[in-house]
Design a protein that fits this description.
- This protein is mainly beta.
- It is built from two helices and seven strands; from the N terminus they run E-E-E-H-E-E-E-H-E.
- Strands 1, 2, 3, 4, 5, 6 and 7 form a seven-stranded mixed β-sheet that branches.
């Protein structure tokens, strides 16, 4: 949802599964590299993403919130973060990965 011209925007992410790839929460960094292509395309540094648990949890149960720190081209991301589960894209892929420093993460 846009907050206005130049203002940070807020995106909602409802997690349908928790397989460690989408989103990938590892080492204090939340990344959206294989999921949410529209968010990855339009979000800017300074925008926020809030991740909510899906089925099996009370509606609106917050799992994590993060502020976007930057974007990297997928092949740059894969080279820099190769050990991460979501570093799957190789050079030539057209999507961008969003880097989100972990601000809030809850585990159940």
């Amino acid at each position: 949802m846009a907050m206005g011209n130049g203002e940070p925007r807020l995106y909602r992410y409802i997690m349908t599964s928790d397989d460690g790839i989408a989103p990938c929460i590892d080492g204090g960094l939340i990344t959206l590299a294989t999921c949410k292509p529209v968010v990855r395309r339009v979000a800017r540094p300074g925008d926020w993403v809030m991740g909510f648990f899906g089925k099996g949890y009370a509606p609106g149960t917050l799992a994590w919130a993060a502020r976007i720190a930057g974007k990297r081209e997928p092949f740059d991301y894969e080279r820099a973060y190769r050990p991460r589960a979501d570093a799957v894209y190789r050079e030539g892929h057209s999507q961008r990965a969003l880097f989100l420093p972990s601000l809030l993460a809850t585990t159940v």
